Structure formats: C-alpha cells, structure tokens
Amino acid sequence: MAPTAEAVLEIRDLVKHFPLTQGIVFKKQVGAVKAVDGVSFDLYRGETLGVVGESGCGKSTLAKLLMVLERPTAGSVHYKGQDIYKLRGKDFKAMRRNVQIILQDPYTSLNPRMTVADIVGEPFDIHPEVAPKGDRRRKVQELLEVVGLNPEHINRYPHQFSGGQRQRIGIARGLALRPEVIICDEPVSALDVSVQAQVINLLEGLQNEFNLSYIFIAHDLSVVRHIADRVAVMYLGSLVEIGTDQQIYETPTHPYTQALLSAVPVPNPVGRGERERILLSGDVPSPADPPSGCRFRTRCFKAADKCAREVPLLEVRPGSPHPSACHFAEIKPVVDTVDA
Amino acid sequence: MTDYRATQERDRGQAPGAVSPAPGTGGTDASAVTPGVTTYPAAIAGGEVGGRPSSLASDAWADLRRKPLFWLSASFILLMAVVAIRPQLFTGQDPYECDLLNSVKRPSSGHWFGYDIQGCDYYTRVIYGARPSISIGILVTIMSVIIALVLGALAGYYGGWVDTLVSRSADIFLGIPFLLGAIVFLNAFERRGVWVVALALTVLGWMTLARLMRSSVIQARDMDYVSAARALGASDTRILVRHILPNAVTPLIVYATVTIGIIISAEATLSFLNVGLQLPSISWGLQIQDAQFRFESDPHLLLFPSLFLSLTVLSFMVLGDVVRDAFDPKLR
Amino acid sequence: MRGGVARAVNGVSYTLNPGETLAVLGESGSGKSVTAEAIVGILDSPPGFIPKGEVRFRGDNLLALPEARRRQIRGQHVAMIFQDALSALNPVHTVGSQIGEMFRVHRGMSKADARKRAIELMDLVRIPAARARVDDYPHQFSGGMRQRIMIAMSIALDPDVLIADEPTTALDVTVQAQIMDLLAELQRERNMGLILITHDLGVVADVADKIAVMYAGRIVEEAPVHEIYANPAHPYTEGLLASIPRVDMKGQELYAIKGLPPNLMHIPSGCPFHPRCPYRRDDVCTTKVPPLYDVGPARGSACHFWEEVLDGSNR
C-alpha cells in the first residue's frame, strides 16, 4: 500500500521529563529524566513508521505519550487537526477509539481473570455505540477469526494460549474499534522466531485490509526494515535520523544509525569477518544527565569540538538528502544487511 | 482468502527453498485485500497449550484437594462454625443452669468436661464459648477487609497525597502498642460486649491488611492490561473494579483467613486481662482467666477452653497457609 | 501444569573440540539450556533428573564422577556464563571479590593477590578504569559491563570449555557486538571450546563453526555453519532460515512455520516436528522417530525425508 500524503498524526516538539525527587513527605525535585526530549514527526495514512533505538532511548515513553497514558511536559500531538492532549469528554473518547495500541508482553497485557470474550469485547463495553449489545459475541468471534484464532475458544482464559496466540488476542482487542492508527510497542520481540513471522504477516495483512497506519516501535532492525515504509532512529530521547526505509538502511547519514546497522549480525555466514563493523565504545549515557550539544558525541567516532557546543538539528543537510541530526552527516552505506 | 495449510500440503513435493519464500505464501497473500473476513491462520493447527481448561482458582483447588492439612483445618473450622451458630445441637443443657453443689467436679461419664466453679456443666460452657470468640474473629476481619479494600485500593491506585495520607495513618496506628492501645480503648467503655471488643480490635488491626492491599493494587496497577484498558478509554472505576481488584484481592483473602485466627487469640488475651468481654458473657478467654489460679487443683478448667481456642486458631492459621501456597503461582 | 515428566532433553549428543565454537540453536523450550545445565551439573535435581547419558570431558564421564571432583572440573575446566548477568552475580559482594574468589578457592591465593588478578581480568575484558571499579557492586555497572564481569569470572581459571547461555539476549545490538567480539577474541587467544546457546540466527552465522539445531529436546540437525545456511537438511531449520525478514522480501508475506512449538509434556508421536512440517507423510512421520541420519561429511539430520529437504532447496 503506497501511503498517501495525508497526515493522521502530527507530532510536534514532544517532551516528557520524569522528575527525580528526594524525600518522602516533603518531595523536592532534584533533577529530571529526559525520556523524550523534543520529538517531531508526521504519520501518514496507511503507512508504517518504524521507530528504532536501543533500550532507554525513550521509544516506550513515546508510545505511552501517543496513547495519552502519560501526559507530555511540553509539545503537541494533532490528530485530525486537534491536539489530543487538549481533548476532553466525548471528543477524547472518540480519539481513543481511533488510536489503539498493541503491547509488547503477551503475558502481562491480558487480564488473567477475564475470558477471551471479555477481553476482546471490552472495547465494546467502553464504546457501546460501536456495537449493539446483542451483536457483541458475534463481533468478538469475527475478530478472533480475523486474527487467526479459533472462534470457539471464546470462553477460554489467556493462560490457556501460547505467547503467539495471546499476542493475537491483543491484536484482536486493538482492532475491535476499527481504529485508524495502531501503535505497536515491540509487538513481536517477546515471541519465538518461528511465531514472530506469523504475527508480522498478520499485522501486514490487517494493514492492507483496513488501511491502518502503524507506528511500529522495535529494537529488531531487520523486522522494522521488513514492515516499515519510513523509519525514525531514536537515541537518548530524540530522533537522530528519519527517512524512508531505503534511505535509512541503504544510505544512512547519521553515525549512530550507521553503527547500529553495522552491529546487527547478518544471518549468513558467507563473507563473515570481512564486513566492516563500527564498534561503539561504552554505554548509552544516563537520560538524567545527557551530554551537552549532540547527545551521541560521547560514543561517536566523528565527534569534534562543535558537537559539544551545538545541538545538531534534525534537518536535511548538504551531506544528507533526508533529515539527519549530525553536524557531519554523510552517506555511508554500511551493510548489505541481509542480502543473501 | 488463503488457506495456508492447504497451500503447504499441496506443495509438499516441491520443497520451499532454503532462504527463498515458501511456495504459495508470497504472492497470494500480499493481495489479500478481499473485503470481508480474511483469516491469517496460525495457531489453530498447532492446538492449544496442552491439557484441560484451567484457571488459577481451579488449579489452586486441585492443589488443595490433595492436601490433608486443608481438609483437616477446613473441617474443624466448619465444625466450630456450626457450634458457634447452633450450640443447642451439641448440648441439651442451658449454660446458665448451674448448681453450686457441683462446683469444680471432675470430668465424669455424663459430664465429660466436668463442672466449673459455679457448678455449671463445663462442656456446655465451652461449647457456648465458641460463639463470641468466633464472631469477634469474623466481625473484625470483615470490617478490616472492607477498610483495607477501600483505603488500600484508593492509596495504591491514585498514589500521591491519598497514598501519603493512608500510609501515614497506617504508620501512626501501627505505632500504638497493640495491648496498651486495646486496654486504654476498652477501659473507656463501661459495658463491653462483642461489638465493642470487635471495634477496638478493628481500629488497632486494619493496617496490615490495608498495606497488603495497597501493595498488591500497585502491582496490578502497573500491569500492561491496565494500560491496555486505559488506552481503550476505560474509566477509573472500570479499571479498578474489572482489572485491578480481581487481580489484587487474592493475597488479601488469604491473609484475612490467618487474621481470623490472630483476632480470636487476641480476644482471648483481652478477656483474660479483664478488658475484653465481661461476665456474664461466656467466652474461652473468660474461662481461661477463671481457671488460671486453679490450675494445680483443677487442671481441666484450663485444659478444655485452651484446647478449643488453640485448635480453632491453629486451624485458621493452617488454612491460610495452605491456601496461600495453593494460590502462589511461583510454587507451581 | 503438574503431575508428569517434561522431557526437556531427549537423546542429545554432540562433541566439541578445542578452539571450536558450537552453536546450539533453538527456540524457548527446545531444551537447549537444560542440556547445558546438565553438562555443567547445575541442573536442579530434584525436580530435574538425568535418566541416562554421559558427558565425556577428555574421556572422563562427568555425570559418573563424584560431586566433589565434578565441582573441581566445573570451576577449572568448564565454565558457564548466563543471559541475566545481574542475577548471576551476588549483589552484596564487590565484583572484585567475586572474581577474586575463583583464585582463592581454586588456586589458594591470598586476598591481595586475588584482587590483583581480578583487576587484570577486568582490564582484559575491557572494563574501563578497572582499578577504580574493582570495589564497586554489580548494580553499579551497566548490563554490558556486568556481562563482561561474568566473562571475566568464567575465564579466570583458563577453562577449556566455555558455555555461554544466551549471553547477549538481554543486551542492545551495539553492546551485543562488543560482547561477541570480546568472546571471539578470548576464544582465539586461549584456544577454548565455546558452546554458544542462542536463538539468534544472526549471532550464530557470525561466530559458529558448527551448529546443532534443537527442537523439542532433540537435535534435529547438526552441520558445519556454511552448509547449514546454504542448504539446510531439516524442515525446521529450513523454516527458521526462511522466516528471517530479508530485503528482497519487502512487502511480501514472510514465510512462517505454522503452528506452535510443542508442549514438553505432550511431545507429538513419531517425529516431534511432524504437526508443523510441510514434508510430512502421515504413515511414516507420525509413527517413527527419525534417528539422526548421516547426510554428509559431519552432517546429520533427523528427518526421514532429508534427501527431499536437501534437494528442494538447491538454488
């Protein structure tokens, strides 16, 4: 599906700081974890935007912000022209209906004391206007069928299913209200390889069928490459590079993206040991105390004085045809990732 | 509409290439934009994670059923419950029908437990003593559970100042020495019946259950299914009632069982110390108090109420213990 | 959930030569970790037990040795690192004393000497400022650094065999690359045998010399790394390799092995893979357990129709 240019979500300068406090009765703020620090991008109708990054880069917080499970410190997210953080009452509920989520852990994302009928039917309880009461059971069974589960298993409990099946139940719940946008927070990373492929196929098929837009958050770069139309790379709370899947995977311009791609092991032993690998030194700094200027400079092989002084903006640069947040952005094809 | 299994069966002869797409999977499905219901079969073929349908509760029940300790404690509790509700079933005599001539007579064939100092049939007195003891145990536990449910759920779910208020109040009450507090509180009352004693024990004993509830609500609150419900637009009430409470009450129920035992012995202690129930009430604590100075001459006066008290308390404790083990998923 | 024996591992054999890397590949529940635990002798027993089999280390059967002797071998010759370094390290002792412990127990070194060796080892696994950090506690290190500490402990006594159970699964890719690099280098320098237990086909392709693929507690395929990636001889391996997302498959449906991994309490009759297998023939596969057929030099496949599998994937 070629994405059309209509933006469904417009994310502007989104910031989320978690205060660090001391004291129990009289709390005093001593700092802040800058989990998400100025993120902007658009999500177009029918497209899949992949968000990749390592643990602690803020991608999960971003998902929570987009779902309004957390409220941002600053910034806005516009859905159909309205700021979702300013919506109240009926409008807010309508937004909820159209933006849904699929969570990572199929073991904790389903209430163990509810049957599949209750879990998948809950969206209808909350938004009764979507399905008349008598119709719900049939609707739930239909949803189960759509996600490839046996509709007769409607009265079972989550623990009677395997991880992959449980993830399908979660997907059915996310689909129930016929949303336009689904935020997938690491939807396959808890699954076995052989089951992962099944769930990815399901997500892609559903997207085609219902013209869904996905924000697909993951740390597995090859999965994102397979499913995403555009990819955003996150590091320490901000986007460092964004572009089409080809731009990011074939002509990355940010050194972090390049290092990330080169670190992914290629599932093909031919030519191993000859591939160039950019080994980053050290660990990701703490988001409570990020480096000045460019956040990546402490691990960057290109770092110069300028990087400590000036924050590089995410923009198109002479060395980068797509937005890249590096003063020295430059195309460097890294790997022919999985070309066997 | 693609039936994946059928495709694979058909193409069994010509194997899928090592790293190339499996036959029939690529092309057909990419164009599965067919209106209506498209299915993406998966797991149906593989079946479910083996075995019969079960839930935590039914697993726990299956576990309990095979434990002799469970049956032993549960049947003793049941027996004592019947004794407390209808003592007439177990003795034909009136506990207040006494004859001083029989004072402290030893156990005999017609009167297994002998007579107390007033000349009342001791068996009848001990049987009638069950009611106040057990009612106080159950009353206090029910009231504490209600307090714990409300305060624990509010503190755990909303956090912030609600939590601070509840937690600090619990701390303050926990700071009061139990016996001292009970003595001071109960001494303020002229006449002390079952309700007054139950009230005192509740006021001094709700904290542990409330704290337990709070922590298990916090645990459930952070589960992904709560996030999922919130993302669907569920209200706070719905999230609390449908998602958090059902997953948070198990430890509360289990601990409440143990609490009944603790409260029964606390009541006996208070009555023994002369600040609990008063004569002419009949209770195990009062009987033990009466008997304390006559242990050498009339040991049976101490023996029988103590025996019933210990067995009842022990049964509740044991029951709580085995139920906790059965509900602990980490032990399976 | 209860009442029954889960056959986690069933008739598994493999050999490892000095300096060689054997990758044991499998999904969760395939028995790959249990095998390793049985080798090192840290399988919790009860409830776990090993009905039969032997682990020969330089000719001695480890399973038959008395516990004391086995413990000696475990420390000195066979070492193990785990996925979760944080829980494998003791939180109340400094990392220096935990590394040094190895020298004090097995080599009878003094406290000061052990500490010195601990610093050397931390340097060796490239922990920055080792001298300053030797008295830190495990929680003060990041995930990648903790895994380095685990590695330092495991190579302290110059083991002949190192078993790494999902050593990088909990780590980010950039850190994973650092750790795998370190392991490869240490192995080369010390001529260690390395058993790498993992589910990551990428990591395996990068470092392994030979591979044993496990499914439902059995080895279903064994082969040198190049052969197995070029031309798998078992349908399960074939399915796994085909389900990796690839560039030229963009926009198309991924190959997916149908069905689910089996429950170890109810392993299917005959070939355990038959309910998910596209090559299945009901008369044979549901009744006869396939032995590990010899399918080429140093290659084995537990599939009755391995010839078809090999054949069909000629590209």
Number of strands of chain C: 10
Main-sheet strand order of chain C equals: 4-5-6-1-7-8-10-9
The CATH class of the largest domain in chain B, by name, is Mainly Alpha
The second-level CATH architecture of the largest domain in chain B is Orthogonal Bundle
| Multimerization state | heterotrimer
SSE string of chain C, helices as H and strands as E:
EHEEHEHHHHHEHEHEEHHHEEH
**Strand coverage percent of chain C:** 5-15%
Head-to-tail CA distance between termini of chain B: 42 Å
| Rounded mean pLDDT score of chain C | 81
CATH architecture of the largest domain in chain C, by name, is 3-Layer(aba) Sandwich
Which features would summarize this protein structure in a list?
heterotrimer; B: 332 residues; mainly alpha; MetI-like fold; 13 helices; 0% strand; elongated; disordered N terminus; C: 315 residues; alpha/beta; Rossmann fold; 8-stranded mixed β-sheet; two-stranded antiparallel ribbon; globular
Structural notes for this entry:
The complex is a heterotrimer of chains A (340), B (332) and C (315). Chain A has 340 residues and is of the alpha/beta class. Helix content of chain A is 29%, strand content 24%. Chain A is built from 10 helices and 12 strands. Chain A folds into 2 domains: 44-71 and 87-235, P-loop containing nucleotide triphosphate hydrolases (Rossmann fold), CATH 3.40.50; 238-340, no CATH class. Chain B is mostly helical. Chain B folds into 2 domains: 4-46, no CATH class; 59-331, MetI-like fold (Orthogonal Bundle). Chain B starts with a helix and ends in a 5-residue tail after the last helix. Chain C has 315 residues and is an alpha/beta fold. Chain C folds into 2 domains: 21-208, P-loop containing nucleotide triphosphate hydrolases (Rossmann fold); 228-312, no CATH class. Chain C has 13 helices and 10 strands. In chain C, the strands form 2 sheets. In chain C, strands 4-5-6-1-7-8-10-9 form an 8-stranded mixed β-sheet, with helices on both faces. Chain C has a two-stranded antiparallel ribbon with strand order 2-3. In chain C, α5 crosses α7 and α7 packs parallel to α8 (173-190). The termini of chain C are far apart. Chains in contact: A-B, A-C, B-C.
Furnish the topology, listing elements before pairings.
The complex is a heterotrimer of chains A (340), B (332) and C (315).
Chain A: E1 7-22, E2 28-44, E3 48-52, H1 59-66, E4 74-79, E5 82-83, H2 89-98, E6 99-102, H3 116-126, H4 136-146, H5 163-175, E7 181-185, H6 193-210, E8 213-218, H7 221-227, E9 230-235, E10 238-244, H8 245-250, H9 255-263, H10 305-309, E11 315-317, E12 320-324
Parallel strand pairs in A: 3-8, 3-9, 6-7, 7-8
Antiparallel strand pairs in A: 1-2, 1-4, 4-5, 9-10, 11-12
Helix pairs in contact in A: 3-4, 3-5, 4-5, 5-6
Chain B: H1 4-10, H2 26-30, H3 43-46, H4 56-65, H5 68-85, H6 122-158, H7 160-175, H8 178-187, H9 194-221, H10 224-232, H11 236-272, H12 284-291, H13 299-327
Chain C: E1 21-25, H1 32-40, E2 56-57, E3 60-61, H2 67-76, E4 78-81, H3 85-88, H4 95-107, H5 111-124, H6 130-133, H7 143-155, E5 161-165, H8 173-190, E6 193-198, H9 201-207, E7 210-215, E8 218-224, H10 225-230, H11 235-242, H12 282-285, E9 293-296, E10 299-301, H13 306-312
Helix pairs in contact in C: 4-5, 4-7, 5-7, 7-8
